[in-house]
Amino acid sequence: MVYAIVRAGGHQEKVSVGDIITVNRMKAEAGDTIELPVVLHVDGETVTHAADALAKITVSAEVVDELRGPKIVIQKYKNKTGYKKRQGHRQDLTRLKITGIK
């Protein structure tokens, strides 16, 4: 089995060809092809983690679409003071399809 650990959107993701992953928003339009930096590469029994060898490996992905994550509600409350605060947040996300590991 061939897979790679890539750095995408501030996190590390385990990917193989054909996987669809959701990462934090990237500056790319739907249909664009992007290259992801590789942290670790596994090809059957061979594990590659040396920086000079990883520089030769490329993981290409196609941007499928952009979406927003679930709403997160942040509530703060202090007893006996009358202080309460409510805030919401929705993270901007990008969905990627892995097209190749070379």
UniProtKB/TrEMBL annotation:
One matching Pfam family: Ribosomal_L21p
Domain of life: Bacteria
Keyword Nucleotide-binding annotated: no
InterPro entries found in the cross-reference section: bL21-like, bL21-like_sf, Ribosomal_bL21, Ribosomal_bL21_CS
GO cellular component assignments: ribosome
Keywords per UniProt: Ribonucleoprotein, Ribosomal protein, RNA-binding, rRNA-binding
PANTHER family named among the record's database cross-references: 50S RIBOSOMAL PROTEIN L21, LARGE RIBOSOMAL SUBUNIT PROTEIN BL21M
Family: Belongs to the bacterial ribosomal protein bL21 family.
Subunit structure: Part of the 50S ribosomal subunit. Contacts protein L20.
UniProt name for this protein: Large ribosomal subunit protein bL21
Organism: Brevibacterium samyangense
Organism lineage: Bacteria, Bacillati, Actinomycetota, Actinomycetes, Micrococcales
Gene name linked to the record: rplU
